[in-house]
Design a protein that fits this description.
10 helices; 200 residues; mainly alpha
Length: 200
């Protein structure tokens, strides 16, 4: 093959990203990715010896996009003139909104990203991409609730948001809350874990 190896590697991941967006996690077989990339079904193994490694590389793209969205969301908060706690609260609100919008807009990728076997394996530095995002959440929670164990509260908040994303994707929360806007549920989750928002 005359194509540089890195070109094929990137193309396989690109195809995987497109496939998970269109058809979900169940479509991400080595054979199908190879077929859509226009290579033999054995070609992916030259770059990804196991299926898990290819899935990890695809999921890494999802974490990178989520990280970009998180940075954008945090950058939209103008902390000028706000008390530090109020600024952190505002950032947590925007971060939560960005997280839910990503999850609901990319259900296949979102499901792939949080597969236990991928995160547990540590392949391709996936944890190096995912854990810093949690670190941002921990830092902001620590600013709002300095008396609490921030990783525990952040973990509970993250679990809450994950549940909101899942139930919203199923349509359950819209039915239960009689609303098509997840913002009130997001605010209630933040209130539950952080206490009422502090005025600026």
């Amino acid at each position: 093959m005359t194509e540089p190896p890195t070109g094929l590697r990137d193309r396989l991941v690109d195809v995987g990203v497109e496939l998970v967006a269109a058809e979900g996690v169940q479509a991400l077989t080595l054979r199908e990715i190879a077929r859509r990339a226009g290579v033999s079904h054995g070609a992916p193994r030259r770059h990804f010896p196991t299926h898990l490694e290819l899935l990890s590389a695809i999921a890494r793209r999802g974490f990178a996009e989520l990280a970009d969205r998180a940075r954008t969301a945090l950058g939209q908060v103008d902390g000028t003139g706000k008390e530090p706690v109020a600024a952190a609260w505002a950032q947590l609100t925007e971060l939560g909104r960005a997280y839910l919008e990503f999850a609901l807009g990319n259900p296949g990728m979102y499901e792939l990203m949080f597969r236990h076997d991928l995160l547990e394996s540590g392949h391709l530095g996936l944890r190096d991409t995912s854990l810093p995002l949690f670190g941002v959440l921990v830092d902001l929670v620590g600013r709002v609730r300095p008396e609490a164990h921030a990783p525990t509260v952040a973990g509970a908040l993250w679990a809450n948001l994950h549940g909101v994303a899942q139930l919203w994707s199923w349509g359950s929360l819209q039915l239960a809350t009689e609303s098509q806007d997840f913002t009130p549920v997001l605010r209630a989750a933040l209130d539950a874990h952080l206490g009422p928002e502090t005025p600026a």
